């Protein structure tokens, strides 16, 4: 089905269109399922709404939170989600995605602690509870720009992502991977001191840990077999665990279950079956992370925001027109999340709800009520209208004049390395 812009005036119109497309889009008019608490390990999320790790590109050059960083998270805290999945924070300076990506160090850990304290105090004052706070620890890999210009570090040469092959010197060595693993011990120790409840070993959107999951063609200890392709991720977990002192602090991941590229260049597919999603290895990996590290939840996403963004965030406006209807993209990730949730004994946080605008909470409620996901994550909608959490609870619906319109403006700002936010609903602060 050809791409089609959002035009739905009612929930019934969305449901009918999804049914015509055979897209898995479970909608529910009653939103009460979103406002039930959930146990996450030893902690409790007061509702099933999570704010996803949307980067603001507004840290200081030293990596500390900047004024806009603090403004954004104060707005998130006032909104009252049960969980805030804090944006990507670099583990090493050369792994930063921009000169203003956050980077947690001994010198700025107190700045992060003041921010996490402010988030909790603000939410307690406004909502009567504090959200669970998870920090995303990352190495940007092939998308590293620590000084504002590309400085890629890649797991292997990937033709779909390299129209012009990158120099062989960009391929990270096994020795360097071992050094990068060790950095997660320091990051985890600082993350705990900074006041977070848990740390995400980021493994999504084709950043370094994620890219290694599809390193079928890479020789040596980090490529080929499933055991080798997951070695870096698991070793990062082991290093992080060695840096922890408090048993309440937990580890988890935002995980790409599907990249959207055919074998041997994409995770979540089978050899000879093109780009048809297959959750087998993602399910196996989550089970192994639960068995060895006791992860209390997993955050599932798909695609690559640099190459095929329609896979992880279906849109109306972008730099290309996808060859599928946006509801087919929504249905693909919902079906994958559901398959994983029914296969693993771990609460699954789903993604890609914002495309449905004012009906996004209805999809989230359908996923939770149907047992297809335990929590639902919002990124673009949280940028546009963080107050939707309370609005949906109090009114049972959202104002279409305040929601995200999936224009891609926030992503354009991020790619440009400038402070990112909603250029439509927060235009006094953010402009293209």
What does this structure look like?
- This protein is an alpha/beta fold and 432 residues long.
- Helix content is 34%, strand content 12%.
- The protein has 13 helices and twelve strands.
- Strands 3, 4, 5, 6, 7, 8, 9, 10, 11 and 12 form a ten-stranded parallel sheet that branches.
- α2 runs parallel beside α3 (109-127) and α4 (174-193) packs parallel to α7 (231-242).
- The longest helix has 20 residues, at 174-193.
- The chain is globular and about 55 Å long.
- It starts with 10 loop residues before the first helix and ends in a 16-residue tail after the last helix.
Helix percent band: 25-40%
- The percent range for strand residues is 5-15%
Order of helices and strands: HEEEHEEHEHEHHHEEHEHEHEHHH
The class by helix and strand makeup works out as alpha/beta
Q: What average pLDDT do the residues reach?
A: 97
Report how far the terminal alpha carbons are from each other. Answer: 31 Å
Can you tell me the residue ranges where pLDDT is under 50 for at least 5 consecutive residues?
A: none
The overall strand count is: 12
Integer-rounded radius of gyration: 20 Å
Inertia-based shape: globular
User: Count the helices. How many?
Assistant: 13
The main sheet comes to:
10 strands, parallel
